[in-house]
Structure formats: structure tokens, C-alpha cells
Amino acid sequence: MKRTILLAALFCVVAVAMAQPAKDTLGNWSYHFQLTAVSQSHPSFSAKYSGENSLLSEREGGKLSVTTTLFVGRKLWKNASAYFNPEIAGGSGLSAARGIAGFTNGETFRIGSADPKLYIARFYLRQYIPLKNSAYAFVRSDDNQVAESIPTSRITITAGKISLSDYFDNNAYSHDPRSQFLNWSLMGNGGWDYPADTRGYTQGLVAELVKPGWAIRFSSALVPRKANGLELDYKVTKAHSETFEFEKNWELKRPGAVRFLLFRTASQAPTYIKTLTDIKVGDSTSVDVYTGVKEWKVYGGIKFGFGINAEQEISKSIGAFFKASWNDGKTATWAFTEIDHSASAGLHINGTGWKRPNDHIGIAEVVNGISHEHQDFLNAGLYGFIIGDGKLNYGAEAITELYYQAKLFTNFFLSADYQFVQNPAYNKDRGPVHVFAIRGHLEF
């Protein structure tokens, strides 16, 4: 863990040396930086039994994760720019990020190694294509955004190494685990098994039609070769994922938005029913595919689903959100987490009322579930790459999260976070679990 902190500190020094003050002027370059550290713990809890992927029922404390990212942008030609994000991640989540489908730390990846790693998170090109008679609006320099004037009616093409969550399923109040809710199933719609490697990135193309008040987005991206895999599958005629989203924004008395998402993924994912049938006749060759231990090399697994995501400002200091998602739940979870349907709602409150307008409170409830086929699979003593207790007394996984984020200095934020997890990994025989966290976030 010391290596993680030292390497992140070195990265921070390099970022400071490169950084320039944000300016409201056009520029060819942008440099931004973030460092986020999260420490989580939970006391002991009741568990009638445990399996290979269970959350440890004994007390766990001081599980520290650190991520640090450098955001570099360069303007190329008219309406075009390129972005490059080297990133370092290290540390570990509670129980190696296993045992809860809606896991409690969105800054922890499913790698299982505490050693810090330097890798390329994003490296992509973006081109704006103005539509006829479009007006232009100035945007400030920000993470992966050079200061420039962009057309308000446009087609945007983005291609390269990306994170699809940067473009789809956005929400002003519940999307960023570095400053908002930490839970995986609150930072995004849990039922969307979005295409990504273990760290949350993929390679692909995003096309957007953006008009004042609404937008349409479409993407085609690579999927992992194995469940929860770090290597992507380049057999693009057999393995790929498509996502479509329609977004409607409004400015009535208060701003709000709603987004409708559809997705379909083709991969090597086997089906739960076929695996259970094969086991009955003595064939267990597909069992290790679900945990990502081996590549199946059998294509044809299809997962599809949808999501809805809405936000509404209620007053100058209060905003509300709602999300719901579903997938067919017939094939193995391949990239995100083992949730087949999910619904969440919550409130975001800024500190204007107590004269700290840059502080924030968030409170939310999320309920996650899995398909009958998925239940049967786990009850048979089998495992995915996130959950599995050896057997299952099924109940919906319900999580309540409450956080307070305080802006202590110009660029530094400190948060206290609490999560109450009922039926972790959908198991009534385990829990409930109380999870506590401290989060520090530096940005400039």
C-alpha cells in the first residue's frame, strides 16, 4: 500500500508541474488532475454460511483504494481535439471487491491486487460536425475538454479508448463516485452490463446527435474476452456491444432531464440454464467461465436490456433522481456486476442553507435483483466473478447510502459515507452489513 501512495504522490507532483490555471479563453491545450483515496470498513455481521465469493463476516477495516488520473487534451484542427489519460490505481476493496452485487466502492476495480498499476485509461479523438445554422456556445477547460466554442446543434464523433459511462447513463446527482455516491449501483444503472475491461474502459466509437433540449447517442464497443477480463475481444463480428440512448432536457420552472437507454451485447457468455443442464450429466466445462478463470471460446451469448434515468432540480439547493434498469438475465454477467434488475431514487442537497454552498449531502436507496435462472445458478453452489455464497436464500439486495462531502480547501474535498446493505449478494442468510467510508478527493 505504501507503493500505491508514493506512486500516486509522484504522479501528483508531475501533474502540478504540468498544470496551468483554468482560463475562460480559447486554448490549444488542457491539463487537469484528480486523486481520490477511499478507506472503507465494516464491523462483523451475522452469516449462517460463507462461500468463495462471500463478503467476510468478520470485521474488516482500513481497506484503502487510491486512483489518480492526469487529463491531457490537445486541440487539433477546427472542431477536433484529442485526449489522453494516464492513470494509476492501487489498493483493495472490502473482501477483494466481492460479496455484494451493488459493491460499496466505485473507485475499486475487480482486479484483486493492491499493487499500484500505471495504465492508459483513455486515448481518443473527438470531432464536432456543426449542423446548418447552428449557434455556438463557449465551454471552459475541464477534464477532457479544451476551452473552445462548440456548435449547439451538432454531430459528435468520438473514437478510441474510452469509458462508455462518460457518454451514457449520466445523472447530475448520482454518477461520479469521486464526489457523489460510492455504490456501484448508484453511480450507474445496475442492470446495464456495460462493455468494459476490468478497470471500466473499452475501445469503440460513440456517435451523438445533439440539439438544444435533446440528444441521441449510439455506440459500438468491444467486450472482454473473458468475464471480468482485462483483455478485450477483437473478433468484432462475434463479440461486440451496442448502446442507444435518447435524452430529453427541459427548463420549466427548474431544469431536469430524462434518458432512455437500450443495449445489446454479444460475447462468449454461456447461459445459466445450459450450464446447469450440463452439470447434471457430468459436464462442468463452462463453470469456470462465469468467474473469468478461463475463456470459453464459444460465441453466441446475447444479453439485452434497457434503463431509464431521470433528474429534477426541486429548488436551488435540492435535486432528486430516479433510475431503473433491467436485462434478460439469461447469460453470465460479463463486464460490470451481477445485477439483472435495479431501481434507485435519492436526493442531493447542497449546503446553501447552512452557509456552506460548496458542501453536499446525498441520500439514496437502491434495490437490486437477479433473474430466476441466475438464482438457480447460485443456489446450486456455483459462482460468478462478484458473488456466490455456496447456496442462496434469495432476497432482493437493498442498499441505503448517505454521504456528506465538505469542501475544505480550494481543490480538496473530504467525505464521510455510510451504507446499510440488506441481503448482501441477494442472500437472506447473511447480513445486514454496515459499511463506513472516508473519501478524500483532490482536483485541479
Quick gist of this model?
By secondary structure, the chain is mainly beta. It contains five helices and 18 strands. About 3% of the residues have low confidence.
Please tell me about this protein's structure.
The protein is mainly beta and about 450 residues long. The protein has one domain (about 125-435): Porin (Beta Barrel), CATH 2.40.160. About 10% of the residues lie in helices and about 45% in strands. The chain is built from 5 helices and 18 strands. The chain has helices at about 1-20, 185, 270-280, 285-290, 370-380; strands at about 30-40, 60-75, 80-90, 115-130, 135-140, 150, 155-160, 200-210, 215-220, 240-250, 255-265, 300-315, 320-325, 340-350, 355-370, 395-405, 410-420, 435-444. The chain is globular. Residues about 15-25 have low confidence and may be disordered.
Helix content: under 10%
Oligomer: single chain
Count of helical stretches: 5
Instruction: Write down the Rg.
Output: 22 Å
How many β-strands, per DSSP? 18
Q: Tell me the CATH architecture.
A: Beta Barrel
**SSE class:** mainly beta
Distance between the ends: 24 Å
Strand content: 35-45%
Domain module tally = 1
CATH class: Mainly Beta
Q: What is the approximate shape?
A: globular
| Major β-sheet profile | 16 strands, antiparallel, barrel
Which series of helices and strands comes N to C? HEEEEEEEHEEEEHHEEEEHEEE
Features:
444 residues, mainly beta, Porin, 16-stranded antiparallel barrel, two-stranded antiparallel sheet, 5 helices, 18 strands, 44% strand
